Amino acid sequence: MAKAKTLTFQWEGTNKRGQKIEGEMLGENSAIIKAQLRKQGILPKKIRRKSEGLFGMGGGGGGSKKIKNVDITIFLRQLATMSKAGVPLMQGLEIVADGLENPAMQKVVLGIKDDVSAGNDFASCLKKYPDQFDQLTCALIESGEQSGALEQMLDRVAIYKEKSEALKQKVSKALKYPIVTLIIAAVVTVILLVKVVPTFQGMFSSFGSELPAATQFVVNISDWLQENYLVLFGSVIGIVFGLREAIKRSPKVAEEKDKLVLKMPIVGEIMKKSAVARFGRVLSTTFAAGVPLVDALESVAEASGNVVYRDAILKIQDEVSSGTQMNAAIRATGVFPNMVVQMVAIGEESGALDAMLEKVATYYEDEVDNLVDGLTAMIEPLVMAFLGVVVGGLLIAMYLPIFSMGDAI
């Protein structure tokens, strides 16, 4: 017998206090939805199947909004706050869902609430949404439930997510800011060459004399751009998207990209320190949660964000599993700073490895913050100088024939 299709139903009803509430629930038919609502103490008034739009997406426009990492972070922080305040998990999920602005995230949270109300444990409910809740988050929540310390674990996971998201934003800013400023500078230069230079060129043609070398060079570039700007634009777009697809589809290309980024000035240093910060943050969180060190290192490798550090952490895992002290295994990789080696050694000797790793994470997160601020402060005058040289050079080249005429007169 074929299994009945699970559908999404929209419902309206009243709770035990007589307050009007509404939401969505997954089920095979409206009768099952009604029974589930009554079990939750909700008196259903209206139940209707949610309409499906193009490609099976739910109607209503906002429901298809993409769920971002920041939505997950906000959800976990709010739930952790509710839990610390003594609010039961079911009620906390309902309160958090009501306050979420992203309809797609709200639907996920309501789905989790329905699964929990059906008697499933919280971690297994999260595992049903692998695109939103990664393996590490689910493992930590599961550890908290099994040890009876879900409240503390939710807080720890929320802190981990907040720190990780903040670090990601800093690194993204460090990478995007130079690219955006260079693109703006290039666009300004092209506009000058395509729109401004031809105006001067028409005036120069009436002079009937040979143009200075600098002016002729700029005019030649302007002529070429006017004839080939579509080819140039298409080539740039093609190269950018081609590299993007190659990085996505080819592990070898992605690996070479990661290695190249680490060798770049300033940006490479930011990427190295951010990888070390992730290493400390994830490992301290998992180790403090009671996850065995070897298993924790596997989670750290997946979250490293760079293939060089991923391979180094997997090597550390192999060494630790064979009985080597972690500080010696870290030193042998050659990619971690000596400070990390020393802090881990102190943590292993004192039995406070998680505390030492947290200090490492905090230190390198601050280092990344300072480097990003320094990069931003350095790029701004460089861009201004670049634009000044380009714009000033173009203006001087355009006015050279006029100066030459003045001298002749």
Model description:
The structure is a single chain. Helix content is 73%, strand content 6%. The protein has helices at 30-39, 69-84, 89-99, 103-117, 122-127, 135-147, 150-204, 213-249, 251-263, 267-288, 293-302, 307-321, 326-333, 338-350, 353-408; strands at residues 7-14, 20-27, 43-49. It is mainly alpha-helical and 409 residues long.
Output the radius of gyration: 30 Å
SSE class: mainly alpha
Strand order of the largest sheet: 2-1-3
Beta strands, count:
3
Topology as a string of helices (H) and strands (E): EEHEHHHHHHHHHHHHHH
Number of helices: 15
β-strand percent reads 5-15%
Query: Could you give a short account of the major beta sheet?
Result: 3 strands, antiparallel
Q: N-to-C terminal Cα separation, in Å?
A: 100 Å
Average pLDDT figure: 81
What's the helical proportion of residues? Answer: over 70%
Residue runs with pLDDT of under 50 for 5 or more positions? 52-64
Shape by Cα distribution: flat
